[in-house]
Amino acid sequence: MGLNFFLFRRRRWQIFGGSFFSVLLMGLVLLVSSCTSPGAMQISGYRIPAATVQDAEFTLLSWNVHKGQHPDLAGDLHETLKVHQPDLVFLQEAKPGTVEEPHLAGTLAPAWRHPLKLRSEVGVFTASCVEPLERQAFRSKSRELGFTTPKTALMTRYALSNGTELLAVNVHALNFERGEPKRFIRQMKTLHVLMQAHEGPIVFAGDFNTWNAERNDYLQELAAGLGMQEVNSFVGYRKTGDHGWANHLLGIDPSLPLDRVFYRGLECTSAKILDLDSSDHDPLVVRFRAPVNDKGESALAMLAPELSVVADHLEAL
Length: 317
Fold this sequence. Notes:
Layout: H1 2-34, E1 41-43, E2 57-64, H2 73-84, E3 88-94, E4 105-112, E5 122-128, E6 136-139, E7 152-160, E8 165-172, H3 182-197, E9 202-207, H4 213-225, E10 229-230, H5 247-250, E11 259-264, E12 267-273, E13 284-289, E14 300-302, H6 311-316
Parallel strand pairs: 2-3, 8-9
Antiparallel strand pairs: 1-4, 2-13, 3-5, 4-5, 6-7, 7-8, 7-14, 9-11, 10-11, 12-13
Helix pairs in contact: 3-4
């Protein structure tokens, strides 16, 4: 009886172990397939065609909307767009249905999608009133924790009527990495290549997950090397790393903001933090003024980005 009992227990564990590893393998397959990126996805149509002149000043809204999980998110976003009327909207952790405004349309750069659900993509979303002629998504080659989901950035280029071009870069940076942020640095280096090739003004903003000194120092050096400065005139609280008891173990500095806005070749005329509870991040609203040329021209017009000039180099990173 003892031998039979032993054989029964052994067989039971074999069945359980086989089932467990089968489920685990299936989960990994679904995870990998869910992270296949369809590239840049246009969400709805634009009200104003490309190359239409805009005002000399423009407003940027940048916000991590936490996948729209909060029931008040849609209403808060609608009200924010109505009150502040941004010309350029950068959202992180957005879905195809996050922005449903008649005067705005945009492009989603997905990092993840449910393999069995339609319109389940999640990524960075850039919206504007005027249609860009071209846009390009950049998905990180590294993944969170080395094997889960990647992160994305979306870049578009805009022409200024004074003869320069504005490069707009919407970023959601890789997060979970203790110590030297090798994956984070690799993602930023990819974006650095494109920005380094650009000679005009730049807006570089989003959720950078700069929750420790190593990440923040690298980002600050990258921005300074490109001649950019950070918007530091915000009044109020910007989202930081968690304030829990495990901060020391994880290396989190709760004094460092995660959401940031960098710029070059523009004048920042105002910066606000909106106090809303519908996401775990608060939206940032920044007003910029474009420079003028000798003729006094400073109105903005959309122009297609010529991103292909650095595509081969980016692939080699």
